[in-house]
Amino acid sequence: MEIQNLTGLELMKSMVEGKIPPAPIGETIPMKGVEVAKGYIKFLAKADKRHINPLGGVHGGFAATVLDSVTGCSVHTMLEAGVGYATVDLNIKMIKPVPLNRELIAEGKVIHLSHNIGISEGTLKDEDGKLYAHATATCIIFK
Q1: Is the pTM above the cut of 0.85?
Q2: Domain extents for the chain?
Q3: d(Cα 18, Cα 73) in Å, to the nearest integer?
Q4: Residue 125: C-alpha distances to residues 10, 117, 119, 136 (Å)
Q5: Does the pLDDT of residue 28 top 80, yes or no?
Q6: What is the mean pLDDT of residues 23-45?
Q7: Which stretch of DSSP H or E encloses residue 109?
Q8: b (16+ CB within 10 A) / e for 11-42
Q9: Is 69 helix (H, G, I), strand (E, B) or coil?
């Protein structure tokens, strides 16, 4: 399977279904895609002892990386084969401290897409719906 011939949605579905390997960042920040549709993606993510800051809490970069991933991947689901994107702006609001060793749900959805930019938003919540962080992202689209 040549990934350059896949649409963004086909590529994301192939990763979620395990047909192609996930991105290596998923080893550094444990996260895995579990659901995908056009303009939407859902990941599961869990912070562990590798993500602790000097004060003993989960570093904000954990939530930032997870939210950058779901906001970008949701935009990717809308792109044709051979079209790429890059995050140019990521705005994150940390609502509550991210818990250690607890699986969280990250969701990203597209709120605007044009030929040149995609705008998406993402949330990081627990299974009860408690919000830990929220993000908006702007992605540049390039062919």
Answers
A1: yes
A2: 3-142
A3: 16
A4: 26, 26, 20, 15
A5: yes
A6: 96
A7: strand 104-113
A8: bbbbbbeeeeeeeeebeebbbebeebeebbbb
A9: helix
> Which tokens hold the place of 10?
């086909």
- For helices 8-16 and 60-76, the axis angle rounded to 10 degrees is 130
Residue 110 and residue 76 in contact, taking contact as beta carbons nearer than 8 Å: no
Query: How far apart are alpha carbons 22 and 33 in whole angstroms?
Result: 8
Q: Which of 79, 96, 99, 50 is nearest to 142 (CA)?
A: 79
Average pLDDT, the chain: 96
Does residue 9 surpass a pLDDT of 70? yes
The structure tokens listed for 122 are: 């993402």
DSSP summary character for residue 77: T
Mark out the alpha helices in 29-83 (DSSP H runs). Answer: 60-76
Query: Which residue type, as a one-letter code, is found at position 134?
Result: H
Residues listed for the chain: 143
Architecture of domain 3-142: Roll (3.10)
CA torsion, ordered 45, 51, 57, 59, to nearest 10 deg: -90
Phi, psi of 128 (to 5 degrees): -90, 0
The yes-or-no verdict on residue 69 having pLDDT over 70 is: yes
